[in-house]
Amino acid sequence: MIDQAAFHAEGWKDVIAAFAAAAPGGKAVFQAVEMDGATAVPLTTAGWSDELTSAYAEYYNVINPWMPVMLAAPAMRPVFSECSLPASHFANSEFYVDWLARADGADGSTGMRVAERNGRFGFLTFNYELRFADQANAIYEPLLRAIGPRLRRALDINCSTRPAFVGGQLLNAFVEPAFLLGSNLQIYGTNAGADALLRDGKLLRSSTRDSLEVRHTAFRDAIIKAAQRACAVRMLPGPSAATPAIVTDSGVFSIVTLTVDSKFMGASVLSPLMFPRRLALVTIRECSASYDREEFLLVLREKFGLTPAEARLAAALDGSERLSDIAERFNVKMSTARIQLRSVFRKMDVSRQAELARLILEMRARHAP
């Protein structure tokens, strides 16, 4: 069953169910534990009610007294709760009274730490009624020791195999080339436009280890910076600023990045182990041809009655930079930039920066040589 799960991650549900059935009243959970001890995410369970599993995922994992035991446990070595931290030591805690006691016989446990990856490690935990602790541990400890290497091997295969459908619906919604990248430019998903760029190979290509390689130095540095920023744990899922246009031998391009929480990828029960916590959804936008900047500023002033400062601001707001970045570049206060932006909105008859960016790009294309 473990060998089958190596090539079909959903098979871990059957493996965990078999583990739970190995001891009387056994309950099993395979969870992804943050290496900093912040949280633990149940990957698949057996013997636990959906209500208790959901409650654990949403709250009780954070106050789990056994978390320090899991963090300190050596890899591939079974840990017995009665030797490390008996439940009686925290019987009056919120975790025990409000959650563990409701599980109907789960105050004894045996577990093992396996498969470290992406800032998390997998931890197998088997719970049982305390009065059967010695009997249950006598089953689980030798079982884990015997098949631990096979567990590790299967999980390594899982984590080294990238499902082709990861982020499929999300990525295919983009017309522009789109990549799901880790902070180290590991490729976790592509759409048709991205695949075409990789096949062409002039600007981007994929290494033998599924890592994105960028031939143009400035373009590569921009993608690395954008991906690292989007993948930072402190980042909330949402949009990041686009980069200014970068001129390469293959054309002029801008990078637009979106922070994506990997739990939404839904590739398999092992997603929290297979993917980093944050992924960068990077789209490659081809920019219009170059244009005479001074002439374009004059067009904006004459057509919309903008002041020189307003025209300069409007021309810069093409979606490639945030207002705060533009204000800093032009050495003006943010309050001044906001006043100018309101005036630009009124004179150019737009109400949002996205509308302004679209109008600027359309006008720039018409005035390109």
From TrEMBL:
<dbReference type="InterPro" id="IPR016032">
    <property type="entry name" value="Sig_transdc_resp-reg_C-effctor"/>
</dbReference>
<feature type="domain" description="HTH luxR-type">
    <location>
        <begin position="303"/>
        <end position="360"/>
    </location>
</feature>
<protein>
    <submittedName>
        <fullName>DNA-binding CsgD family transcriptional regulator</fullName>
    </submittedName>
</protein>
<dbReference type="InterPro" id="IPR000792">
    <property type="entry name" value="Tscrpt_reg_LuxR_C"/>
</dbReference>
<dbReference type="GO" id="GO:0003677">
    <property type="term" value="F:DNA binding"/>
</dbReference>
<dbReference type="InterPro" id="IPR036388">
    <property type="entry name" value="WH-like_DNA-bd_sf"/>
</dbReference>
<keyword id="KW-0238">DNA-binding</keyword>
